[in-house]
Amino acid sequence: MTIGTGRAPRAPRPVPAVPSGQDVPLTVLVPRERTPGRSLRSLATRLSARLGHAVESWSPDRPADTLAAIEQHVARGTVRLVVLPVVIGRTSGRDGSLDATLRALTDRWPSICVHLGAALGPDDVARILGDRAREAARSLSLERSALGSAVAVIVDAGGASPAGNAELAGLCRLVFEAHQFADVAYAFLDLTTPSIAEVVRRWAKLGARAIVVAPHALFDGVVHRRIVKETLEAARAAGVTTAVARPLAPHPLLVGALARRHVEALRAGPIVSPSEVATTPWVRPHLLLALRHSHPPGPLADLEGRMSAMLPPRYQAGEVPVSPAPMSAVPLQFGPDGAVAWDAMWQGFCELALAGGPPHRGTLLEAPSREEVLASSERHAEVLQELERGIRLITKLDVHRDTPPGWIGVVCHSEAMAIWMLRAIVVENVIARREGRVLYLPAGPRFSLAGEVKNIITALAKSHHYWVQHVAGQ
Known about the structure:
By secondary structure, the protein is α/β, with parallel strands linked by helices. The protein has helices spanning 37-51, 63-75, 96-108, 122-139, 162-178, 196-205, 222-238, 252-268, 285-292, 299-309, 313-316, 370-375, 377-395, 415-427, 449-472; strands at residues 22-23, 26-31, 55-57, 80-86, 113-116, 150-156, 183-188, 210-215, 241-244, 280-281, 398-400, 407-411, 433-435, 438-442. The protein is built from 15 helices and 14 strands. β11 and β12 form a beta hairpin. α1 crosses α8, α6 packs parallel to α7 (222-238) and α14 crosses α15.
């Protein structure tokens, strides 16, 4: 359903086929505070893709809208609800608003099973905060070794409870132990100290090379915007480089944590269990397998989350079906001067191989040997010239031709870009290597215009296209 707008309800997700004697639950995300409807619906969509069934989002401002949407599921046969609190920090305990939501659901449908999931734990939040902080640090084009001179600051809205505010210090310690920052400090927006300005000023005086601010906030709402504003003001006053991380949602690790809470709630049993419900809940088999190995979440879960976060936003949501089928090959197009019009050849690209799409080549294109290059130096120079022309036309990046024999260098904007491009191009079946910000691609005298030269430029153009999308989503 659509909350707080006049748009029509979204089409229901198809109900999966389940064995006899099982029922498909409906999951309901319940925030404690006012939350941007679009952000909450986006999180619900991503969780729905993970669970394989419908997920609705509760609107504290317009509960009748959510009840109407749930009524549609009940009319189609839903007999089980899983309520998941979407809260972090000191608000994560069960409170009056959550109890009111549960009462509204059980009063409206007394014959339905209701399961209650646990709130996000500190370990879940710390992993996502640390990953967001590193992501923001990479936006400053810091070398890997420079992370040790950068300070991360986790910022919370603040509150009147000393015990609640002390939770933030614990999160800082967890992030510090898992990452390579010089230190991880904390700050608050209201009611208590230190403020963002105080922390930024102190670390600037202590010589921090850069300060990365990670909002302790799930969504891009009022709190996140205030943190951005106050960080920019503090950075200008202190004369230090800063970056503000994105909110926690919709990080893939957050979706994974909510999926675990969903399965745990089903396994723990319902808090309301009418006798009319005789079926057992259906769960995707791979989610049960993942839960069996998820205490504590190990390196594989973190790796999967980081890999997903590395992809452009269109692949993170799980909404885009990634087809391994290649598109038809684009023929060479020539301009009035007879040269290949590299910048006019593509109107779109097939799916990124890094996300499961088809690689550009069927076999790996490798660099030629040094002896082969030196034996045909004139032809090699012609290949380098055409590769440089195509690369510059498509990406506007600088090119190095004074390179070791068999390679051409592409100067990326940052080391992070070079690393991302290398990963993407290698999966397209074109060998690549990197030194700092320079990405090296193969170049040899045997490379033909319609063959290897086109392969390299196409793989680079496709990877650069998706890199731009990746950066735009950050």
